[in-house]
Amino acid sequence: MNLISQIIIAFVALLHFYFLWLEMFAWTTKAPKVFRNFPKDLFGKTKTMAANQGLYNGFLAAGLLWSLTIKNPIWSQKIAIFFLSCVLIAGIYGAISVSKKIFYVQGIPAILGLISVLFLKGLL
C-alpha cells in the first residue's frame, strides 16, 4: 500500500481507538462533553451499552491496524477495504439513525481511505 493509504488507514484506526476509549472508559466523564445532544441523565444508565459499542469500535481499529501489518500487498488491500467498508457502513447508518455529523466524522475518512486503496489497486 502507498504511504497516503497507510496514513489515512492509521488515522481512521486512531479515530476508532478514541471512540473505544470514550465509550468504554470515559462515557460518564468525557462523553457528555462530546455528545451534547444526548440527555445527561442517560449516560450512567447507558454505560454498559456504550462500552459494548466501544468494543466494536476497537475491533474496527484493530482490523485496520492489522491491514497495515500484512506483508502480502494483495491481502493487505483486501483487509483494508473490508474494514474501511465496515466503517463507512457504520457511518452511513449512524447518519441515518442518529446524526449526520457521524457521517462526516466516520464516513468521510473511510471514503478517503477506500478511494486511496482502490486507486492504488487500479480500480478507480
TrEMBL record:
Tagged with keyword Transmembrane helix: yes
Signal sequence residues: none
Pfam family of the protein (one): DUF1304
Keywords, in A-Z order: Membrane, Transmembrane, Transmembrane helix
Protein name, entry field: DUF1304 domain-containing protein
Transmembrane region(s): 7-29, 49-67, 79-96, 102-120
Cross-referenced InterPro entries: DUF1304 (IPR009732)
Top-level taxon in the UniProt lineage: Bacteria
